[in-house]
Amino acid sequence: MNPLVTVSVPIFRCESFIENCLLSIRNQTYDNIEVILVNDQTPDNSLAIIENFISRHQLSNWKIINLETNSGLSVVRNEGIKNAKGKYIFFVDSDDEILPDAIESLVELSEKTKAEISMGEVQGVKIPSNEKVDVFPIHTKVDFLQGNIQILQELVNGGFAVSSWNKLISVDFLRFNNMYFTKGLYAQDSLHTFEMGLHLETLAFLRKKTYIYYLHQASVIHNRKKIHFDNWITIAQKINDHYSKEKNNERKKLILEYLINFKAVTLQMNWKAQQNEELWKRSYKAYNQLSGLSLSNYFSSAYSTKIKKQDLFYRLPLFVGYKFFRWRFDR
Predict the structure, then answer these.
(1) Domain span at residue 56?
(2) Which of 54, 57, 189, 292 has the smallest CB count inside 10 Å?
(3) pLDDT digit string (tens) for 156-172?
(4) How many helices (H) and strands (E) would you count in the chain?
(5) 51 with 113, same domain?
(6) Are 21 and 77 within one domain?
(7) 132, 213 in Cβ contact below 8 A?
C-alpha cells in the first residue's frame, strides 16, 4: 500500500501565485496525499482563493489551519509537522510548484532505500522572462548516503541544498529527534537542515527535476534586510553552541567547518543585499566572537587550505577585515 504523504503549504501574501501552486499539488500522479495549508493571518485574498479551490474541486483531504496571530514561517512549518498524518512530509512554498510525478518518484525512492530524507533536483524559472535556470544543484556524486559522518561531510562541502522545501522527510524522524523549526527566524532553512544533518543516517537523491522555484522580485532572496542579517548571527551562534557541546572529534571538526563556511557565505550575501557598511561590520563583529581555527589547526593537514583562508579572512581586526573584504569583493 502506498504510504500517506502530507504536503504542507504556508499561506501569507501569496494571492498572485497560490492557484498555480495548488494546481501542481492536485495534479500529482500520486493519489495518497493530504494537504495542510497553514494560514499565517494573510492580509490579502489568498485564503478566499484557497477556500474556493478546495470547494470547487471537492478536496476532502485538504484542510486549512488558521493561526490566531501572524507567527512567521517557522511556526507555520511546525504546524505542518504537528498535524501531519502522513508517513512523510513535503514542504512546498506557496509561490512555487511541484512537477506532476514529484511525490510519486520521491516516495518510490524513499521506500526503496529507507531514506529518512529524499530530495530531487530544482528547476529555476526567472519571472517575468520565464527563462529556465539551474538552481540549488545536487553536487553529491553518489545517489545514496549512509552514516552520519558521510552525510555531515557532504553538508559541509555543499553537496546538497539546505532548503526545507523539495525534501520528502520522514515524519517519525522529525518527531523522534524533536526536529522543529526555531521560532522567529526568517532564514530557518539553513539551521533546520544543519540540525537534521546532526541526526541523519540515510539520505537519498533523485536525479530528476521535482520542484519549480520561481525567482521574482517578491522573493526573500531579493529583499534581505537587517532582520535577516541578525537572523544569520543567531543561526551562527546556535551552530557555535552545537560545536561547543559536541564530544565526537570528527563531528566537532565538521561542525566547525560548517560554521566557518556559514560565516563567509552570509557576510558575502549581506554585502550583496544591502552594501551597507554599518550592517556588514555589525555581523563581522558578532562572528568574530564565535569559534574558529586554533593556531595548531593552521599547521594541521586535517583542515583544507580553503577552510584556513575562509577562517583567516573573516577573523582579522575589523578595520583590516572590512578593507580586505571590499578589495576582494570589488576586484
Answers:
(1) 5-221
(2) 57
(3) 999 999 999 999 999 99
(4) 13, 10
(5) yes
(6) yes
(7) no
